[in-house]
Amino acid sequence: MMSRQKNQNYKGHGLPKGKEREQRASIRFKTTLMNTLMDVLHHRPGWVEVKDEGEWDFYWCDVSWLRENFDHTYMDEHVRISHFRNHYELTRKNYMVKNLKRFRKQLEREAGKLEAAKCDFFPKTFEMPCEYHLFVEEFRKNPGITWIMKPVARSQGKGIFLFRRLKDIMDWKKDTRSSDDQKDDIPVESYVAQRYIENPYLIGGRKFDLRVYVLVMSYMPLRAWLYRDGFARFSNTRFTLNSIDDQYVHLTNVAVQKTSPDYHPKKGCKWMLQRFRQYLASKHGPEAVETLFSDMDNIFIRSLQSVQKVIISDKHCFELYGYDILIDQDLKPWLLEVNASPSLTASSQEDYELKTSLLEDTLHVVDMEARLTGREKRVGGFDLMWNDGPVSREDGAHDLSGMGNFVTNTHLGCVNDRKKQLRQLFRSLQGQKKTPN
Amino acid sequence: MLQEESDLALIIAQIVQKLKGSNLYTQLERQAWASLQRPEIKLESLKEDIKEFFKISGWEKKLQNAVYSELSVFPLPSHPAAPPEHLKEPLVYMRKAQGSWERRILKSLNSMCTELSIPLARKRPVGEQKELLNKWNEMGTDEPVLDLSLFRPVYAPKDFLEVLINLRNPNYENGDSHSFRTHLGLIQVPLKVKDIPELKEFFVELGLTAGQLGVDDSTQVPPELFENEHVRIGQKVLSEQDSAAAQQYIRQGSPTALRAELWALILNISSQPEDILYYEQLKTNVIQHDLLVDSLIYKDVKLTASNDDYYFVFEDYLYQVLLCFSRDTSVLGHFAYSSASPPKSYIRGKLGLEEYAVFYPPNGVIPFHGFSMYVAPLCFLYHEPSKLYQIFREMYVRFFFRLHSISSHPSGIVSLCLLFETLLQTYLPQLFYHLREIGAQPLRISFKWMVRAFSGYLATDQLLLLWDRILGYNSLEILAVLAAAVFAFRAVNLMEVTSLAAAEAVLADLSTLKVMPLLQIFLFATVT
């Protein structure tokens, strides 16, 4: 899309200008989730929990509550809630695919094939059962490849299977005929059939995927932050295409791995992204790694742009997404899916620290305490990735990939000295308050 | 003057002798013959022309690297009349202690063998061989044939520490009266160790005025100040293929992208077809014969590396390296300059008869608890099994063997322990005294770090920066200095503890430490 260079220095990231924002004595929060989120909320100074029907200023809700209540809940201007009303446009696999396809077509019309090709980061996907015939056409064009069938709405690896023969999914064809005359209220479960990436990048002979966190503060205009930390989740068994029935080999969700007979809880099967980035750098050199990470930035931004016009951008809403990315042997990243409710349960001490830091910094960015000026490009471990346009790094460092003289403000897998940065940030904010300009 | 000349002549003769048997010699010969075809080689000036050709084609560099490698590994020859034991270890009491330690280990191994009625070695049946060959790349998933819980590791570092604590020099008597000069630590042998002024000189490139990777490549420092130039020099060193230059260069740390090649250059490892063939041969040995030590290796990997948050991924590589390592008889060569000797075993029924003696395991090295951690960090750099194997083997015969054998060598574990304790007592006397009073002798905590060269205790990137310096200075002394630096860093907390367990807790987690700043502060920024 537009690659106009904007001087980002004078543009805030969405905080209301003019009238000084109210500093609240205490912030009433509500949440149904336990684990790390509860710890973080309870430890935040000035935040108190409200139970049951009490009025709240901040609600970290789950998506089912949202579906049932959002439309008839009045929220004051300052109130914040942790999901967008129709987030499923991005997070349900069939909708995401539809939106991405439409966005790609639009891009091709407006900016040409080259620009549209930047959206080719999701494997060919077909919604089932309605796109069954299109799927069969593609299937026949590529005999012998493996496909993966994923339920649209389930998570944690449930209901997923691999197949190579049409025979394996003949049941779907039966369902397409009967979908018109549904007698029951039970909806037919939607699946997507996706081309399985047969050449994943392996480390130690094992397949892995990456979990990356993206915080979206608004869609219109689009403002998104990228968290520096994340992790690579390894499959417990060695990768081979011989046994497509062995879901332990192919699925890297920790939830599935936990049930594998090889699973040892102490292991955790995760690498922090910093470790992953260093491993790649020592194997492929820094330039290749820069290219890979900048391709991932492209995925985050384009996927958000594709749903930008569709998602209801309510100013009360923000959302923390968990992106699942798979790298193939050519160091090309693929988008597997986007999670609106990434798991916040900690599987180890290290994981606990990552998630609590992530949540603390999310709350800093949401800024219920009205401390930020709105011009920050970095808050703790979050870097401002998109602010109605690309965001540049302050110092204008050299652009390694040679694609123009512009370096993005993302630092995925880089050093996260968030405590230090937060100290400096809040100290300078204090200072600014005392000396009015 | 004459003495020096004759020493030099002796060294040259020894190195030539050694290299004549090597593959490099054959290659040079072949190259020399082939060069006769070239137009610039003239009969009148044959010798000079061939030398010139070697220089231009890079073969001289290769020879230079090989010579440098020999100089680094082999100790300089001493008195011509000195017996070979002196090359291994000049001090008699040390040799004796090592000998009795070895007998203990072998006894333990043999008794485990008898208890479990498992042979030390057996030939695998054909079916089992086929199965192992199929599973070669994923041995980690295999359930071992024998129940691993029956096996005990032959020894753990703390057993070894007890032996070292009891080392005494029978010729040394320091009088009964205790004074402030009395060594407070556990090691009670009089070996010469460096003090801080000497260490400052030895590690001069780590000083505050020189740039370092691990310090000057942090996010706050603009890369133009040091990092960019350092990377550029590193690339130049690699293109020149000069071992000695690489070793000097790496004292300031290696850039991540260049590290694998730099280490290979310093260790003089190049993957020739013969090396790959040799590795394949070892693999065949593994397939055909099963050794008792294999179970020890399995157990060690499962207990240590597989449980590590970062190294679990490389489990399979560890088996592929360590199982082959046990069968590699070329490792026996290092016993010429190690105080240790390979354990001998006898063919069944022929106990005591030398003709029926074999070294067991074939490489003479019995693995102990934590041994696999020497290999794990290398998996981060090398992905090709035969290259990974060569690098590990070279690292072992140059450095790691000194960490579990009793000797007076300055890089030997005894000297490292003494260096650690002396540094602590001299520069942090209050801390040392306090810890001793509460029954928490510092060496009891730091010993395991040094024996493993900090593998598994530091974050991987920090560990690799540390091992850069081990290669750069061709010495393990930095391990003792780092151990002391860690204690210095956590001194405030340690002064408040009142038990060994509490002291262990303060020092339990080293994964957040940055080694280079710690070393710099301890060596160069502390008032001595």
UniProtKB/TrEMBL annotation, chain A:
InterPro entries linked: TTL/TTLL_fam (IPR004344)
Gene3D superfamilies hit by this protein: ATP-grasp fold, B domain
Keyword tRNA-binding: no
Span list, region Disordered: 1-22
Key words of the record: ATP-binding, Ligase, Nucleotide-binding
Compositionally biased intervals (Polar residues): 1-10
Highest taxon listed in the record's lineage: Eukaryota
Family of this protein: Belongs to the tubulin--tyrosine ligase family.
Name under which the protein is recorded: Tubulin--tyrosine ligase-like protein 9
Organism: Balaenoptera acutorostrata (Common minke whale)
UniProtKB/TrEMBL annotation, chain B:
Superkingdom per UniProt: Eukaryota
SMART domains: TBC
Segments passing through the bilayer: none
Rab-GAP TBC domain mapped to chain residues: 253-474
Pfam families: RabGAP-TBC (PF00566)
InterPro entries tied to this protein: Rab-GAP-TBC_dom, Rab-GAP_TBC_sf, TBC1D19
UniProt protein name: TBC1 domain family member 19 isoform X1
Source organism (scientific name): Balaenoptera acutorostrata (Common minke whale)
Lineage: Eukaryota, Metazoa, Chordata, Craniata, Vertebrata
Protein's gene: TBC1D19
